[in-house]
Amino acid sequence: MNEAAAVSHDDGEEREKAEQMKEAALSMKEMKNVCLVKGKKQTVLAFQVYHRHRFRMEKIQKDLSEEMKKRFPDEKITVSYDFKIFLETSRLIHKIRSGTISGEKAEKEIGRIVRLNNEKT
Amino acid sequence: MANPKKTPEQKEYEKLEKKHEVKRPIWRNCLTAFWVGGLFCVVGQAITYFYIYFFNFTEKTASNPTVATMIFLSMVLTGFGIYDHIGQFAGAGSAVPVTGFGNAVISAAIEHRTEGFVLGVGSNMFKLAGSVILFGVFSAFVVSLVKTILSYWGG
Amino acid sequence: MRKGEQTWEFENEPAIIATGVTGGPFEARGRLAEDFDILHDDLWIKEQSYEKAHQRLIEEAVQAALEKAGLRKEDIHFFIAGDLINQLSPTNFAARSYGIPYFGIFSACATSMEGLALAANILNHGNAEYIVTGAASHNGAVERQFRYPTEYGGQKPPTAQWTVTGAGFAVLSSKRANYPNEPVVSRATIGKVIDMGMNDPFNMGGAMAPAAAETIFAHFQDTGLDPAYYDLIVTGDLGKIGRSTALELLEKKGIKLTEKQFQDCGLLIYREDQPVQAGASGAASSATVIYGHLLKLMKKGAIQRMLCVATGALLSPLTVQQKETIPCIAHAVAIERKPGRMH
């Protein structure tokens, strides 16, 4: 999986927006993998960069976060390079696609992932 | 500190003795320190991924349990009398990572078990690692002080 | 009788009638394992502490020596011994269990020969009939006192040496006539403290070499003997670096020794493949090798006359941390085989 986007409540408009966000993230040249789940309230965006850019990951995360804020000012987007967030997001995408999770639950799951990301050491 | 000037006789002897002295193999030491230290880090990375995959830790938070596990491993190796042999072989490679800190603590604790728990283990456990803690904390203080002042000036 | 500056000649020829030598696990794997009377396969020797194990080594070595001499402890008039631990406690505690009038002596690793010289001197002048003397060290106890905990993973440089775990004791007698075939102590040269400004505690051989050379030089100066008189001149624990340095120093002073004639106990005791860096050290290095291995060779007739030069680095953990230099000392004792000569 190089890129994937999913939404918690599937209607055409939501999906369209999620795809746009994903494309916006992928437009950065450092991006290798992007995983994105858009819920009604908030969105989680996890990414991985090409290995040679790893040392600049913090900076890339900051840039991407600002870029997303500019392009989608109405959305609340959490951007993270953390491997655990990437892992959890892609797991959630699988669940949504296989239909084993309800919209409500997916929304909650997004909240959990965002809280995990904000956890300090 | 007593450091009197060497007499000519002593200087001459020093020169003579140097001819016979076996030098530390610096390049070999650097090389082994590099790859053994690297190996320790590979193990540490594997443990980090273990915690990320199977537990609820992020890359940021997984470092704490990883460090604890590495120290635990080094303590087990010290207890079984293996770590000092690794140390003789790898030098800085096994002393610099956090496992070296664990080794310094536990080796002193084992050593002074014979003097009892309070006066032996308790008071001697940090006799090697104590200065690491002291100067670690002190240098962190100095660095953060400098950073605070600079960022205050820099606005 | 004093001869020259710093040498005693023992005209009454006190005899070394028996020896007892004990060792630890590392020595058991060494080259001279069969020359030990008792070897332990554990550094703790089933005791509660390294210091107690140290004491056990001494007690067992003395016991073995007494048994071989066929004597009881009541027959012994003096006990002269020492080790490297603070306040000589292992030796003091061992002396407590024997109840023999006791001299505790310290010359670091030169203690063995200091004891032998003093014992021979007392016997030579008829002030005792039997004396037990010797020295001991214990790797664990010494390492923790002078360096780091035994399990600490610090890297030792190639100049470092390995402290011998063991004890070597000898019973000496003034009744030369009763022991016509035993080796005798014929001379001793008492060394001066020499400090050549070396201060690396991980290079004791380099620090001690001048003291050894000085004492050997004084010995030949005082006695007027030719270096070729001795089949073997053996140092206590100079190690690789100290030995070759001492050899060069002696050559500069005009004493030419062959490689074969000039040996070091610290290089004899272990095998090449044992990880001891520059060689062995410790008070037991000279004591075990001389009283175990070399006297056996002498009794077999492989050696007729040898000069034993034990070297000691008189440092303490405190003086090392205070950046002091390392003063060193060496004592030389000549042991000879003079079978059949009756008095």
Automatic annotation (TrEMBL), chain B:
InterPro entries: MFS_trans_sf, Spore_V_AC, SpoVA
Domain of life: Bacteria
Pfam families reported in the protein's UniProt record: SpoVAC_SpoVAEB
Annotated transmembrane regions: 33-54, 66-83, 89-110, 131-153
Alphabetical list of SUPFAM superfamilies matching this protein: MFS general substrate transporter
Keywords of the record: Membrane, Transmembrane, Transmembrane helix
Record protein name field: Stage V sporulation protein AC
Species the sequence originates in: Caldibacillus debilis GB1
